[in-house]
């Protein structure tokens, strides 16, 4: 993979600024990877256990930061919205402390090509069934934030607010506001919801995601530390994991997918739930087994979850045999062939959906060829999950 080791003057200026702010950087440097964008490269051989980056708490941007707190933005809006509003309000100030950092952030044009949130409606409609609810939730959250905060924003700044809202969505770290003498956040930090615990972290946002780790990120009252968990050769990209997320989640939330993702899975709800009778839905609901049916890869083979097996068993066998299955009593092997056939029919239906989606996307490519190609790739990944590629 071709690597540009100095991705631009703005990155050189930002790294210099970050070091002046107290960010400690060891053995890694920003780089541009062909076909992938920005990331961090090992500037020399790295041993497991080396601390690569330390970011002091004083340079984070959080709702506990003085400049954000002083705006007194309404607490009914989300933390994401308030941070986006702060960045929008001070954007015209050339003296803002994070100006050099902001120069390294992706542009709105880049977001428009990779984030489903920004795609044309006709292409959003071709997202896989697991990604659509994620996008719908994002859109509702954004609309609420803008409604709650628009009176605090400069005139005609919605486009800028949307841009910074996406910056927050794609670049924040989890920050649980460790106790300090100056902290103004609730003393019972364990009661904070995860969506309240957000921080923009200079230099840390260069790290790209991998499904199997590569570095550990820890926090305490002093800030963030990133420590390697494996050896890297000079020139290798250095990663850490954002968590065990499917490619639909990564696409919807961050605008990328992994070609090989250990955690990949897809929802089967849209294929199973509509075929259940009202009575069957009531039974599954009573057993807390209605919905959340998933397909993933287990031991290199397509596998459906226990909830899926329970629903298919209820749909294809006598209810008492379903009851024995969920209770863990009796011999369920006599129904296995019937359930296996139901799984195969399910896979056939999903494979047909994949083929139809890819065919439709070929007709929609036009000026949105990159987006259409991303969607085709995702449908092909689902075919691979089905074992039909």
Task: Report the count of strand segments.
Answer: 14
Q: What would you call the structural class?
A: alpha+beta
Major pleated sheet: 5 strands, mixed
Extract low-pLDDT stretches: none
Residue share in helix: 40-55%
Structure commentary:
InterPro entries: SET_dom, SET_dom_sf, SETD3_SETD6_MTase, SETD4_SET. GO terms for molecular function: protein-lysine N-methyltransferase activity. Residues 21-243 form the SET domain. The chain is an alpha+beta fold and 389 residues long. Among the domains are: 61-200, no CATH class; 265-386, no CATH class. Helix content is 42%, strand content 14%. The chain has helices spanning 9-20, 66-69, 79-89, 99-102, 108-114, 121-124, 131-149, 158-171, 247-254, 269-272, 278-286, 306-316, 319-327, 336-364, 369-386, and strands at residues 3-4, 24-25, 28-33, 37-42, 51-56, 173-174, 198-199, 208-209, 215-220, 223-228, 237-240, 265-267, 294-298, 301-304. The strands form four sheets. It has a five-stranded mixed β-sheet, with no helix packed on it. A four-stranded antiparallel β-sheet has the order 2-5-10-9, with no helix packed on it. Strands 12-13-14 form a three-stranded antiparallel β-sheet. A hairpin with a 2-residue loop joins strand 9 (215-220) and strand 10 (223-228). Helix 3 (79-89) packs across helix 7 and helix 12 (306-316) runs antiparallel to helix 13.
Question: What descriptive keywords fit this protein?
Answer:
14% strand, 42% helix, 5-stranded mixed beta sheet, 15 helices, single chain
């Amino acid at each position: 993979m071709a690597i540009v080791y100095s991705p631009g003057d703005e990155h050189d200026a930002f790294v210099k600024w970050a070091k002046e702010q107290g960010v400690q950087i060891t053995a890694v440097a920003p780089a541009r990877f062909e076909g992938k964008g920005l990331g961090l490269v090992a500037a020399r051989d790295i041993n497991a256990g080396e601390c690569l980056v330390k970011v002091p708490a004083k340079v984070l941007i959080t709702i506990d930061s003085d400049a954000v707190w002083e705006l007194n933005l309404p607490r009914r809006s989300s933390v994401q919205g308030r941070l986006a509003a702060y960045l929008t309000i001070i954007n015209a100030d050339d003296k803002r402390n994070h100006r050099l950092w902001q120069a390294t952030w992706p542009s709105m044009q880049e977001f428009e090509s990779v984030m489903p949130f920004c795609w044309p409606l006709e292409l959003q409609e071709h997202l896989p069934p697991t990604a659509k609810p994620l996008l719908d939730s994002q859109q509702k959250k954004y609309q609420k934030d803008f409604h709650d905060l628009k009176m605090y924003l400069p005139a005609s700044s919605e486009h800028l607010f949307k841009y910074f809202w996406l910056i927050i969505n794609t670049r924040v770290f989890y920050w649980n506001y460790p106790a300090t003498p100056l902290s103004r956040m609730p003393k019972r930090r364990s009661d904070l919801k995860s969506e309240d615990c957000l921080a923009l972290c200079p230099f840390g946002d260069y790290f790209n995601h991998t499904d199997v780790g590569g570095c550990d990120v820890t926090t305490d009252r002093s800030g963030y530390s990133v420590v390697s968990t494996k050896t890297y050769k000079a020139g290798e990209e250095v990663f850490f994991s954002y968590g065990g997320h499917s490619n639909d989640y990564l696409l919807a939330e961050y605008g990328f997918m992994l070609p090989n993702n250990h955690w990949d899975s897809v929802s089967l709800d849209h294929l199973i739930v509509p075929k259940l009778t009202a009575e069957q839905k009531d039974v599954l609901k009573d057993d807390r087994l209605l919905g959340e049916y998933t397909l993933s890869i287990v031991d290199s083979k397509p596998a459906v979850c226990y909830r899926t097996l329970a629903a298919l068993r209820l749909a294809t066998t006598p209810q008492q045999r379903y009851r024995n299955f969920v209770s863990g009593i009796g011999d369920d092997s006599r129904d296995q062939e019937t359930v296996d056939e139901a799984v195969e029919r399910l896979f056939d239906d999903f494979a047909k959906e994949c083929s139809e989606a890819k065919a439709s996307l070929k007709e929609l490519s036009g000026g949105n060829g990159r987006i259409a190609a991303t969607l085709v790739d995702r449908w092909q990944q689902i075919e691979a999950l089905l074992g039909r590629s």
